[in-house]
């Protein structure tokens, strides 16, 4: 695969000079959804699918980008003196944003690059293809120019570029998982302090199965920002009643005792999700560590109900997938994963139920929704690295 990409690189840009390769993964979140901008905990893991980058230095200040995924767009050229976002720049706004964010921090890029990108994360699936491209770019810049940045810095720079160059107000989870992933482990991250811990995902006789609904509703970005604003509003009103910095500071009991400080019903429901989901994530990690997979699964199911009813970020197609999954014996837990309004579900499925899971959900979903779902039985991989 990498060899093929190098061949393509040489065909496009010529074969001379030192050519280097990098990879950064996509992620799936097991539990702790919409908590990362509420000072709560998340529990994502890096996947073995992700984004590859093949790179060579240039002597001038030009940057040439090419994506094997968007061959029709051909080579897209820009320069280090033109790190501004534009519609015409398309997907290259992601790497450009990261370059912009490095320069903003005083890390000047002294020469241009030729870059070839290839990603094997299904398009628009909500498995963080954009975060993986940001982390990949951060890694390329660190290695190419010798910048003294850690992988956590690269995650933060990626988030900054996404927030302030690409206009999506995401939290830190996706970039953190892509940068800091560890094979066979999920990352238990406190998004308030960025303290983290790896927890081995030992499922023994079960697998992680991702189901792609293959729908993406157009409200993703605007509704995401609405949820953020509603949580901020709820926090502000709660702070009148109780001394907290974030919603993640509250236990369920504390929330119940003070929830009437929140004026609107909608904001109360959003805050309730943020508080309860954070506690569920903490409990789920304890359960996993104690080998109580059943409890872990129940918490995943409860997470879905909360995201569906209180946070209202699910949609009909995803609810169909989750309802079907819950009915299959051997499914330990199933829920929506990621930002919502389409995308994927994540399920933990006993090995001997995986075929039935894929077959029966596949058929029923096709019948009910009118198009196919896709299934990926995934492995947990390492974070961004040189290849
Ligand atoms: C998207 C965002 C993340 C996180 C999730 C929801 O993936 O990029 O920061 O907020 O949604 O958990």
Low confidence ranges: none
The neighbouring-strand order within the major sheet is 5-4-6-3-1-13
- Based on DSSP secondary structure assignment, what is the total number of beta strands? 13
What average pLDDT do the residues reach? 97
Rg for CA atoms: 21 Å
Indicate the percent of residues in helices. Answer: 40-55%
Treating each run of at least 4 consecutive H or I residues as one helix, how many helices? 11
Hetero groups: alpha-D-galactopyranose
Strand content: 15-25%
Reading the helices and strands in chain order gives: HEEEEEHEHHHEEEHHHHHEEHEE
Q: Termini distance?
A: 11 Å
| Global structural class | alpha+beta
Shape: globular
Profile the largest sheet. Answer: 6 strands, mixed
In short:
By secondary structure, the protein is of the alpha+beta class. It is built from eleven helices and 13 strands. The radius of gyration is 21 Å and the shape is globular.
């Amino acid at each position: 695969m990498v060899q093929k990409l190098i061949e393509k690189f040489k065909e496009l840009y010529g074969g001379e000079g030192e050519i280097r390769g990098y990879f950064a993964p996509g992620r799936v979140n097991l539990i702790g959804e919409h908590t990362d901008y509420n000072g709560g905990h998340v529990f994502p893991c890096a996947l073995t699918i992700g984004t590859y980058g093949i790179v060579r230095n240039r002597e001038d200040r030009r940057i040439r980008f090419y994506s094997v995924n968007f061959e029709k767009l051909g080579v897209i050229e820009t320069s280090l003196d033109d790190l501004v976002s534009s519609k015409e720049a398309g997907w290259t706004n992601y790497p450009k944003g990261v370059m912009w964010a490095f320069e903003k921090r005083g890390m000047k890029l002294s020469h241009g690059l030729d870059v070839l990108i290839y990603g094997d994360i299904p398009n628009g699936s909500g498995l963080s293809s954009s975060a993986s491209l940001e982390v990949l770019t951060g890694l390329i810049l660190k290695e190419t120019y010798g910048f003294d940045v850690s992988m956590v810095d690269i995650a933060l720079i990626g988030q900054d570029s996404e927030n302030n160059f690409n206009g999506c107000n995401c939290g830190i989870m996706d970039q953190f998982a892509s940068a800091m992933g560890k094979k066979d482990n999920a990352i238990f991250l406190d998004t308030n302090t960025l303290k983290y811990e790896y927890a081995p995902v030992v499922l023994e006789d079960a697998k992680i199965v991702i189901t792609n609904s293959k729908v993406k509703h157009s409200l993703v970005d605007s509704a995401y920002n609405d949820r953020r604003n509603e949580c901020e509003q709820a926090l502000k009103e709660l702070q009148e009643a109780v001394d907290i910095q974030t919603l993640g500071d509250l236990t369920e009991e504390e929330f119940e005792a003070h929830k009437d400080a929140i004026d609107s019903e909608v904001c109360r429901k959003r805050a309730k999700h943020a508080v309860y989901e954070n506690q569920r994530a903490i409990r789920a990690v304890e359960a996993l560590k104690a080998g109580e997979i059943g409890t872990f699964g129940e918490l995943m199911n409860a997470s879905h109900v909360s995201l569906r009813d209180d946070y209202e970020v699910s949609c009909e197609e995803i609810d169909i997938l989750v309802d079907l999954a819950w009915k299959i014996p051997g499914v330990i837990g199933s829920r929506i994963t990621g930002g919502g309004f389409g995308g994927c579900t994540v399920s933990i499925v006993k090995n001997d139920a995986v075929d039935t899971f894929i077959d029966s959900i596949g058929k029923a979903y096709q019948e009910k929704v009118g198009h196919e779902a896709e299934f990926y039985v995934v492995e947990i991989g390492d974070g961004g690295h040189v290849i």
